[in-house]
Amino acid sequence: MRGERADRLYRAGVGLLAGAVPVALGAIAVFVLVDALPALRYMGLGFWTGTQWNLGNQYGGTTASQNGVVAAAGATFGILPYILGTLLTSAVALAVALPLGVGAALFLSEYAPPRLRLWLSSLVELLAGVPSVVYGLWGLAVVVPAVAGGIGPWLSAALGFIPFLRGPVGTGLGLLSAGLVLAVMVLPLIAATARDAMQQTPRALREGAVALGLTRWEAIAGVVLPTARPAIFGAAILALGRALGETMAVLMVSGGSINLLPTNLYGPVNTLAAVIASQLDAAFTDATHMALHALAGIALTLFVISLVVNGTARLIVRREGAA
Amino acid sequence: MSTMWTSAQLEAQERPAGGDAAKMAVRGLSVFFGGQRALEAIDLELPERQVTALIGPSGCGKTTLLRSLNRMTELVPHSRHEGDVLLDGRSIYGPGVDVVDLRRRVGMVFQRPNPFPMSILDNVTFGPRRHGVRNRRLLQEIAEESLRAAALWDEVKDKLHHSGMSLSGGQQQRLCIARALAVQPEVLLMDEPTSALDPISTGKIEDLIRQLAEDYTLVLVTHSLPQAGRVADRVAFLLQGSLVEVGAAQEIFTRPRDRRTEDYLTGRLG
After folding, report:
1. Is ipTM strictly over 0.85?
2. Touching check for B72 and chain A: CB below 8 Å?
């Protein structure tokens, strides 16, 4: 009898703890949505399609009323450039980090001698623990000059026939630098997950491939990679989530553009997360509070993008798994 | 399927194949893992289109012997061998032997079914695709032929695009046999192919082994003496890395010449 009661109590306890997760998620969504509503009413759909971001006149005390809500005179909040900047920096990051990470994982799992594997693996995990502000500084000191003085001009010359890859390269602060810094930040996640998945390929599968007359590389490409594919895909999604939301490092190397749609791979951009951080100070001075509501609108947008990306990825993984 | 023939195979075809000719021959073979001797001076003939069963207690070296027939023992670090193994009279360890081609000619089926994480069709065509067959129609034909030969076609013909992992254990093992047959091997090595299967699946695999013996030279490692009795033409008994005796299955089971064989068969050994 006593055991049964303890069991019921225990079940209720862990149920409550597990329930905290959806409750927290729902609470965040509701609060951000409510906080964002005034800005969404003020701008309408223009909040997502507009390209102009202006907190309005903060000194005259003049206000403007629109759709029944009040904002500082001249205020307009269009976040399309930040949406594009977020998606593009993350896309560049993934495009660079995925092949690098899978390649590193292949070497670690299949080719590295055991001692080197151990040493390199711990280095990879160390990379994951570096604070993002350090990545930002490193980006400013190393990546930005490299993009401005080498990578950018070279890419522009070699692949300039693609309009988006054509110069001018400018200062180096911009999309490519942000993407590269993000790539290094998500690299350990992809490399470590892919390596673990590859090492878990059953020996029976490798032997089965070799016994069919495959060379080592063919066995890896034919059996090890397909086995690890779902895990690699999952890691890529986690990496994308991290890249979409990364704030500090991007803020430091993206060029912090405003009112400007990205026109090439090198120019300054801004991301949803970085704008929230960089505009927060100014927004607090807005007596109408509309600027804060607009930042909440950005947060809501980032939240929805993350949910959509994760949801889509899960759908794809499930379909892949069923095939 | 003529695209898959290699020059080595064509040469092999030109030689007259007598009924009792040895397809493979093991000559004074010793295998070492590190300092440990796993096999000691084995001499064994594997007649063409017959099933040779390797029996003996655990750790006697029967799996090592099987794996040395397609050089899978080489995958173990610090392994080496003395002596030789002949396929159609030629050393498989000689200089200039293409291991990839050897393993295509001497196929293998493992103890546990090991289908690749892909569709049934892709599993069967995996080998041919890797060996350069690109034509989709041809691949489809190879798949059907191999699945028929493995007695699996009727069960999977309507779900060729389902995952190979979705099949039952016995079906998975027949899929692995089909996969091995798809590269047109001449010899098929089977390492306890039914040890992970239920009795009904085991029966199907055993029927299949008898059918396959009409076209292929088979070598079967088994822990089940009744199984060896049901499917084997010849039986080789190994003990502690040495070959104790080899002969027709009937002979070995009814009139073993060596005392140790008799002890093993009657359960006093191993």
Report:
1. no
2. yes
> Which residues numbered 226-285 in A keep a CB inside 8 Å of some CB on B?
226-227
Q: How far is CA A87 from CA A75, A94, A181, A235, B30, in A?
A: 25, 11, 15, 18, 62
- Predicted pLDDT of residue B17: 42
CB–CB of B110 and A205 under 8 A?
A: no
In a domain, A10, yes or no: no
Nearest C-alpha of chain B: how many angstroms from A322? 8
Residue A171: CA count within 13 A, CB half-sphere:
13
What digits encode the pLDDT tens for the residues A201-254?
888 888 888 888 888 888 888 888 888 888 888 889 889 989 999 899 999 999
> A222: nearest CA in chain B?
B126
Q: How many percent of chain B have pLDDT more than 70?
A: 92
Of A204, A218, A227, the CB nearest to B110: A204
Q: Which CATH number do you get for residue A261?
A: 1.10.3720.10
DSSP-derived pairing of the beta strands A53-54 and B22-33: unpaired
- CATH superfamily, domain B2-115+183-265, is P-loop containing nucleotide triphosphate hydrolases (3.40.50.300)
- Please check whether residue A317 lies inside any domain of the structure: no
pLDDT in tens, B204-236: 889 999 999 999 999 999 999 999 999 999 999
Among A residues 137-176, those touching chain B with beta carbons less than 8 Å apart: none
pLDDT of A40-66, one tens digit each?
Answer: 999 989 899 988 998 888 777 788 888
Strands of the sheet containing B79-87, edge to edge, are B36-47, B22-33, B79-87, B90-91
Supply the range of the domain harboring residue A241.
80-284
pLDDT band at B8 (very low <50, low <70, confident <90, very high): very low
**Domain total in chain A:** 1
Distance CA B250, CA B67 (A): 26
Shortest CA distance from B130: residue in chain A: A214
B116 vs A215: CB contact, 8 Å cut-off?
Answer: no
User: For an interface test with A, which of B71, B72, B75, B166 has the most A Cβ atoms less than 10 Å from its Cβ?
Assistant: B75
Q: Within an 8 Å CB–CB cutoff, is residue B200 touching chain A?
A: no
Q: On the CB side of A199, how many CA atoms lie within 13 Å of its CA?
A: 16
Angstroms from A103 CA to nearest CA on chain B: 21
pTM: 0.76
The ranges assigned to domains in chain B are: 2-115+183-265
Separation between Cα atoms, residue B60 and residue A247, nearest integer Å: 63
